[in-house]
Design a protein that fits this description.
7-stranded antiparallel sheet; alpha+beta
Length: about 180
């Protein structure tokens, strides 16, 4: 089931990326700063592990490309921050040997809210915004404690320990396009 949902997400990304303006939706490359570690396991087992860490597959996610190979991701999972459900951690996996995990923390896009239209553009094209330091609405490499713990126990955790847990995010811009 998850394989067909994943195929659907990538197919929709191709269609939307070819038909919508660059500022709205995208297929974009992650950066090395989002890398948090590896797990020596079958990708199906890694997906189950991520789900056990309170993540769910994110059909609405933009298709991500590996920072070195440009290969599309093999799964996109999100977990709402229990302390602030307007924010989420977002983990992406690549079926390599071993399976690689990348993560970031951001506001959850809510395009049905008029003041979130600009945030949706940032969400689907984070390379169009300042993502370093104060004021960022997308923090590369930020990850939850559950993923850090799972990587520490069952894989190779290589994330930045100072980026574990929730974080302060900048204000959502009220600019509409």
């Amino acid at each position: 089931m998850q394989e067909s949902v994943h195929w659907l997400r990538h197919s929709l990304a191709r269609i939307l990326d070819s038909g919508l303006p660059d500022s709205f939706y995208g297929v974009y490359r992650l950066t090395d700063t989002e890398y948090i570690g590896t797990i020596e396991a079958d990708v199906v087992d890694v997906r189950e592990l991520i789900t056990d860490c309170s993540y769910s597959y994110n059909l609405a996610s933009a298709k991500k490309l590996h920072p070195e190979t440009s290969k599309p991701d093999d799964g996109s999972y999100r977990r709402l921050d229990p302390d602030d459900p307007a924010k989420q951690w977002h983990v992406h996996i690549w079926d390599k040997d071993p399976v690689e995990l990348y993560s970031h923390y951001e506001y959850k896009p809510e395009p049905w809210r008029p003041w979130h239209i600009h945030r949706s553009a940032e969400h689907y094209r984070p390379d169009n915004q300042d993502t370093a330091g104060d004021g960022a609405t997308y923090i590369r490499g930020q990850h939850c404690e559950n993923i850090q713990s799972a990587l520490g126990e069952q894989g190779n955790y290589e994330g930045d320990r100072t980026k574990s847990g929730s974080a302060e995010l900048g204000e959502i811009s009220s600019t509409i396009w």
